[in-house]
């Protein structure tokens, strides 16, 4: 595939009404091409109905195993969740528990399958799979997903990794955090890529939004578009109609404004970048 193709994805679809409103607005009036659904989100039912009303908007599963609620009850000790069914808030703690506490393996299997089943039950076509805080690339979680991908006909996957040098030129803040995340996800991607290729699961050449999560503003996108490589790039954002106080570092309304920005749309056009989704459908101007 020659040329530069760009997937613009909104994460956390179904998290709240404000997020749902932003997803629809970004699809109708902006550059958004797909969204990832939190099937255990508080506003999931509303999100599903909105997706049905806008069938051109491709929707994937935003697998949630941290900072969210479970799809099924998990008892015993140790447990994947607390007594109220909430996953750990700390992603590092959650990841270490999944890796080292072997009794959690069966619970992870049942939880991941339950979230996939909840998505299938919506009747929406499952476009792709990714994860909240990119938990889908955790070694234990990825191993389980590999067993389930063919059962659910999943053919596309977010392989999260990003060029560190390019990102630091775009935005120099949070240097140490970006370096650590880039190293971690480069290693994870190196483990996942051969298995995805063996199974003929598609993925983007690069994913932007990993190292600058929550700050994908108009100014940032205008600079980032100049750095796109040949092939498919995914840029993911977390837009919302109002900033969530639980996410103080996330500029959600600014990310929605970036999706709607005429300057961004004009630059995409001037650079000959083609907007598409993981299924390969091209978004035509005004098609939202």
Please sum up the structure shown.
With 288 residues, the protein is α/β, with parallel strands linked by helices. The protein has helices at residues 17-29, 44-53, 91-100, 104-121, 139-148, 164-170, 175-198, 218-224, 252-260, 262-270; strands at 4-13, 34-37, 58-63, 126-131, 206-208, 231-237, 274-276. Strand 1 (4-13), helix 1 (17-29) and strand 2 (34-37) form a beta-alpha-beta unit.
Describe the structure.
- With 288 residues, this protein is α/β, with parallel strands linked by helices.
- 41% of the residues lie in helices and 14% in strands.
- Strands 1, 2, 3, 4, 5, 6 and 7 form a seven-stranded parallel sheet that branches.
- Helix 1 links the parallel strand 1 and strand 2.
- Helix 1 packs parallel to helix 9 and helix 4 crosses helix 5.
- The chain starts with a strand and ends in a 12-residue tail after the last strand.
What structural class do you assign from the helix and strand content?
alpha/beta
Count of DSSP E strands?
7
Question: How large is the share of residues in beta strands?
Answer: 5-15%
Order of helices and strands: EHEHEHHEHHHEHEHHE
The radius of gyration over CA amounts to 18 Å
Count of helical stretches: 10
The residue fraction in helices comes out at 40-55%
* Average pLDDT for all residues: 94
Amino-to-carboxy terminus distance: 24 Å
Pick out the low-confidence regions: none
Topology diagram in text:
Layout: E1 4-13, H1 17-29, E2 34-37, H2 44-53, E3 58-63, H3 91-100, H4 104-121, E4 126-131, H5 139-148, H6 164-170, H7 175-198, E5 206-208, H8 218-224, E6 231-237, H9 252-260, H10 262-270, E7 274-276
Parallel strand pairs: 1-2, 1-6, 1-7, 2-3, 3-4, 5-6
Helix pairs in contact: 1-9, 4-5
């Amino acid at each position: 595939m020659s040329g530069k193709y760009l997937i613009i994805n909104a994460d956390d679809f179904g998290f709240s009404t404000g997020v749902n409103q932003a997803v629809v607005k970004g699809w109708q009036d902006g550059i958004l091409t797909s969204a990832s659904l939190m099937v255990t989100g508080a506003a999931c039912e509303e999100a599903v109905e909105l997706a049905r009303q806008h069938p051109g908007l491709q929707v994937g599963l935003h697998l949630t195993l941290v900072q969210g609620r479970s799809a099924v009850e998990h008892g015993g000790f140790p447990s994947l969740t607390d007594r109220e069914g909430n996953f750990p808030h700390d992603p590092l703690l959650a990841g270490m528990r999944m890796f080292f506490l072997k009794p959690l393996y069966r619970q992870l299997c049942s939880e991941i399958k339950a979230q996939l089943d909840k998505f299938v039950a919506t009747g929406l076509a499952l476009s792709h799979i990714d994860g909240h805080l990119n938990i889908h690339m955790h070694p234990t979680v990825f191993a389980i997903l590999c067993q389930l991908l063919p059962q659910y006909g999943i053919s596309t996957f977010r392989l999260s990794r990003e060029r560190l040098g390019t990102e630091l030129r775009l935005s120099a803040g949070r240097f140490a955090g970006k370096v650590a995340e880039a190293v971690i996800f480069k290693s994870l991607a190196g483990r996942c890529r051969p298995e995805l290729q063996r199974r003929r699961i598609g993925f983007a050449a690069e994913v932007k939004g990993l190292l600058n999560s929550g700050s994908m503003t108009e100014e940032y996108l205008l600079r980032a578009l100049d750095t796109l490589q040949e092939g498919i790039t995914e840029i993911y954002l977390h837009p919302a109609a109002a900033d969530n106080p639980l996410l103080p570092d996330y500029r959600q309304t600014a990310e929605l404004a970036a999706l709607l920005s005429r300057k961004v749309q004009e630059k995409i056009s001037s650079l000959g970048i083609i907007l598409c989704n993981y299924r390969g459908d091209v978004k035509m101007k005004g098609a939202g």
